[in-house]
Design brief:
Helix content: 40-55%
Strand content: 5-15%
Main location: membrane
Structural class: mainly alpha
Strand order of the largest sheet: 1-2
Largest sheet: 2 strands, antiparallel
Distance between the termini: 32 Å
Catalytic activity: L-cysteinyl-[protein] + hexadecanoyl-CoA = S-hexadecanoyl-L-cysteinyl-[protein] + CoA
InterPro entries: Palmitoyltrfase_DHHC, PFA4/ZDH16/20/ERF2-like
Membrane topology: Multi-pass membrane protein
Subcellular location: Membrane
């Protein structure tokens, strides 16, 4: 029975993945039908970047501890027999442990963890920019439906939370675990841990590997000869 449930969930994830691509195709049609010729190439390119990073996100491994040679293992997971550390978490859906596992995302059919977090971040970011640009444009804003506004609002709130986690160097799994372990008396606002200098350093390391010369590769990722897929 358990295997049948897992199979059903896997097929559901395939449907969700297809729906993401379908939504991007719908946006492309709307851009060509509603957007002024001047802004059309820009919005199209932003949307293509979102599709590109989403595709890489689906293909790329979330990353196990063994993918990071500089990290020290502190045992083996009894469920999947993979190396684990204080920052690895087991996913019951994937049946594997991943380093800095954030959450299992049904929209990509796998977990978001250290290995694919950059692509996840850029996919959400470019999708927000694409939708927001259409909402702002006067020629299009009057034709935008409730769903686009709702989705954009939800993604912006979610993206703020993602950046907050980057800022405090925590995954959502670690953040939830820490909040559950703290009593009401010992409670401290999570914003007390925010260090903007650390945030800039971590964001730079994640997006451009700490090298400003790599910044141009974000809007032109197809120029990378061999994109690294772990």
């Amino acid at each position: 029975m358990e295997e049948e449930i897992r199979t059903a969930i896997k097929y559901l994830e395939y449907i969700l993945i297809a729906s993401v691509y379908a939504y991007h195709v719908e946006l492309l049609f709307e851009i060509y039908n509603d957007v002024n010729l001047i802004f059309r190439p820009i919005l199209t390119y932003l949307l293509l970047l979102s599709i590109f990073y989403y595709t890489i996100l689906i293909k790329k491994s979330p990353g196990s501890l063994s993918d990071y040679s500089d990290l020290e293992a502190r045992g083996i997971c009894t469920k999947c027999m993979r190396l684990k550390s204080s920052r690895t978490f087991h996913c019951d859906a994937c049946r594997k442990c991943y380093y800095k596992r954030d959450h299992h995302c049904p929209w990509i059919g796998k977990c978001v963890a250290a290995g694919n977090f950059r692509e996840f971040y850029l996919f959400i970011g470019f999708l927000i920019i694409s939708i927001l640009s259409r909402i702002i444009l006067p020629s299009v804003s009057s034709k935008i439906g409730f769903f686009h506004n709702y989705l954009c609002g939800f993604l912006i709130i979610f993206f703020i939370f993602v950046n907050f986690l980057v800022c405090i160097d925590r995954t959502s799994a670690e953040f939830n675990k820490n909040n559950q372990s703290n009593s009401f008396i010992k409670y401290r606002s999570p914003w007390s841990k925010v260090d903007w200098q650390t945030y800039k350093q971590k964001l730079s390391k994640m997006l451009i590997d700490g090298n400003i010369n790599n910044l141009w590769l974000i809007p032109f990722p197809f120029l990378i000869k061999k994109p690294r897929i772990v």
